[in-house]
Every structure is written in C-alpha cells, then in structure tokens.
Give the backbone structure.
Amino acid sequence: MSADVRGAGGAGPTADVGVFGGSGLYQLLGDAHEHRITTPYGDPSGPVTIGQMDERTVAFLPRHGPGHEYPPHRINYRANVWAMQSLGVRAIFAPCASGSLQADIAPGDVVVCDQIVDRTWGRPDTFCDGPEVSHLSFADPYDEMLRSVAIEACRAEGVRVHERGTVVVVQGPRFSTRAESRWYRDAGWQVINMTQYPEAALAAELAVPYVALALITDYDCGLADDPDIAPVTQEEVFAVMAANVAMIRSVLARAVALLPGTG
C-alpha cells in the first residue's frame, strides 16, 4: 500500500526511528506501508516504508533507491534526511557497504565509525544556504549514545565489531586507484565509503542523532603484504552485502530494541 504525504510540518505519518538502507539492503520491514514524501529539496530516493519493530515505529528508506538506481554522487541526500526529520524520527541508523583500509578489519566485520574525512565534491551538503549564516559544529560526527547501542547490538548478535574508525568518503562512483588507497591507509584511516558525506552532516544540521554501521565488503585495492587480495569490484561488494543482509537486519532489530525507552 502506498500513500502520498507532505513532509515538514503537514499532517501525516510519524516514526520513532529512521533507517537508511545501503547497497544490497532495499527492504527491512515486513508488515509495512509505503509513503511518498514531498520535501522542499525534491523527492527522496523512493517511498519511505513505515512499520513496527520491537514496539517502535520505524521508517526505512534505501538511499540508492529501491532498485539501486542512484549512484552515490546523484543521491538527493537533503531530501532523504529532510524526509526522515519530517516524520519526527529521533534516531537514524545508517548501515552502509564499505571497504577496509587496514588488515585487521576484515570483510564481514562491522565498524561503528566515530570520525569522517570528506573527499567528495559538488554534492549539495547543507540546509544552511542563507540568508541567515549558520556554521555547524561537526567535531564529533556520530551520536555517542547511538554508537554505544550499535556496538552492543553487534556484540549481542555475535558480529565482529570495531568500536571506532575513521571513514574517508570518496566521490565515486569509481573505486580508488592504488595510490589513493595507499594514501588513505597510510593516513591511518580505517574505512572507505561513498555515501557517509553529506548524509551524516545533514542529519547533524537537523539535530537528528545519527550513527553509521559500516559493513566491510572488501579491502579496497588490496593489502601490500597480501598480493592474493585483488582490488574490489562492484560484484564483490554486492555479493558480500547479499550474504550479510540477514545479519544486518538482526543487528538493526536488536539496536532498535536497545534504544532507551523500549524497556
């Protein structure tokens, strides 16, 4: 079932928790309804699906679209985040397919990131376009309470989790050159991704607590001490995501149950 609603202040559906689905995660909720939300920034990536999860109302939106039709640099991040905020969500979980830059972080692991390095360009990345000037404090990009919840949920589901990590966000849609990957690795960063910026910053501008769960799908361009690891391919990313969709759903369900106020 699908309904048309107008976001940002009009009467319509509400939700407690928002989830952005990454590559390979296009459905989350079973008994749910689709809602098309209008925002001042255009249409989101698709209808928002709203349903129940552990007595919480959850809104789900695949950031790349329901058929993965939007590459990272063409996602309407402002519309997506605005749509979630217009529903009244008080927390956003953002699973995302990511590459590892370090040998100790393996495919199938989850990194609950605590820092971002932005290497994108040309993406509309703010709601603060004037005439009032506003400068966002973005020293700590991810909400600490939600990070704790995500870490606990991973542990409870038996998932190998890394409690901290810096994600470098690249423009895409191409993957890195070997020189770029080596540069990011040598800088000491742990994770590489194409969608965390400006999504996280926009959530911060709207004061919606936000956390990323980076599911590691690959080693980017490989590891210097292991020549048998080949550079990442799109097929590899999708295959690892597909193999871990059930795990990500379980972690998200556990995280929603662990949120304060759920008992």
In short: Residues 1-9 have pLDDT under 50 and may be disordered. The CA atoms of residues 78 and 124 lie 7 Å apart. The domain at 2-130+139-258 is CATH 3.40.50.1580 (Rossmann fold). The chain is about 25% helix and 25% strand.
